[in-house]
Specification:
8 helices, globular, 55% helix, 3-stranded mixed beta sheet
Length: 199
């Protein structure tokens, strides 16, 4: 399963699953979406660092969905890529929290710089959420699950469209997919696999 159409079909199936999660009203979609973005970053850039994740956001995600790149916090910063990595991705994956740990704070992450919502809340995606009465003050971007997933779908479609004409991107995708096949590719053994039964 290393041909471009099969890889693209696989990712479109995962987008469908993200859409299903987004409508449930719980936080799991944000964990899965952050992981999905990481895999997109890896197949696009071929790297594995936090810097690659943030570069992918700035140079691919934000070009397809420019409202992320222009989001400005009340403190005047336009650093959503840093917050998406340090607070959203790392916060959820490592501590299931939107409070930045010490390392994230050293690298620019700020506590609750992203808050999570669903459409049912009535909040608008990427609206500023500022509350100076709280201690500490809240200065956040609102991420609405359904809209976030729709944007991830746009980015995914853009990457696969680019891979039709971008040989380096296509090679990165094939290489990463071959070395690190994603979940599900080997869940169901095909008929050519020999399965040993152990007692």
């Amino acid at each position: 399963m290393t041909t471009a159409p099969k890889v693209e079909a696989y990712f479109k199936e995962r987008i469908g699953e993200l859409k299903g999660l987004a409508g449930r009203g719980d936080p799991w979609v944000f964990l899965c979406a952050s992981s999905f973005i990481e895999y997109l970053a890896k197949i696009t850039l071929g790297g594995t660092s936090g810097r690659d994740y943030k570069d992918f956001l700035r140079n691919h995600f934000f070009k397809t969905c420019p409202e992320y790149g222009t989001f400005t916090y009340a403190n005047g910063k336009q650093d959503l890529a840093d917050q998406m990595y340090h607070v959203l991705r790392c916060g959820i994956v490592h501590s299931f929290s939107l409070i930045a740990d010490k390392q994230a704070k050293r690298d620019g992450g700020r506590d609750r710089s992203i808050v999570l919502a669903h459409r049912a809340s009535g909040r608008k995606h990427l609206e500023a959420c500022v509350d100076g009465r709280r201690n500490p003050k809240l200065d956040a971007a609102v991420f609405v699950a359904e809209d976030f997933v729709a944007d991830i779908e746009k980015v995914t479609n853009s990457i696969f469209a680019q891979s039709c004409t971008n040989k380096k991107l296509r090679l990165n995708m094939k290489t990463w997919w071959k070395v690190h096949p994603p979940i599900g590719v080997l869940l169901i053994p095909d008929k050519s696999m020999r399965i040993e039964r152990r007692n």
